[in-house]
Design brief:
The chain is an alpha+beta fold. It contains eight helices and six strands. Strands 1-6-2-3-4-5 form a six-stranded antiparallel beta sheet, with helices on both faces. Helix 1 packs antiparallel against helix 7.
Amino acid sequence: MPRWLPLESNPDVMNEFIHKAGVPESTSFYDIYGTDPELLGMVPQPCYAVLLLFPSSKQGEHKAAEAARIEKDGQVVDPSAFYLKQTIGNACGTIGILHAIGNNLDSIELNDGFLKSFMEDTKGMTPEERGAHLEKDEGITTAHGESAQQGQTSAPSENERVDLHFICFAEVNGSLYEFDGCKIAPINHGSTTKEDFLAKATGVCKQFMERDPTSMEFTMVALCKSA
């Protein structure tokens, strides 16, 4: 499996990445400082997506139980949901960004660039084909590498074991989905609206935190209309 340098959960780094990639300046990432209503009230609206960075080592039991439940009971996944499998080590940050953008193209009009080209080229592909296509995309690969070298912390090496993992939450046709390229499929977390999406998405993030209550390594960022 090819490996990239991990991306930092830093809105400044992410914004430089997406704006260079073709996302207009009218859309940006912002920190989410907590799940309390007053803290969520600081997040600009409309909010298009939420990215959660979390330590993955304590989530394995839940992940296995969730996969078994879906295999047994099934779930409804909207066919229009944009999803790609992660086939590159440490690429979860950029894959989370791709999920955030790809599931909001009705609200975000991309400028010409490698991100718009990726979305057009992978339209109609399977999640596995999209993951393979990302491996060959020179524009995104280069932009990820440049962004991974930035931020407030020094980047680990490509081969270093990193426990932190990014996932994305987005609303698709009235349902809240969790997009994790390492899971079997997008996870349907039930109904939502554009108005209560932020509260419901961070509510699921809170469940991740409750499964690892002593960790201080959780961070959340929101993709929103720029304030």
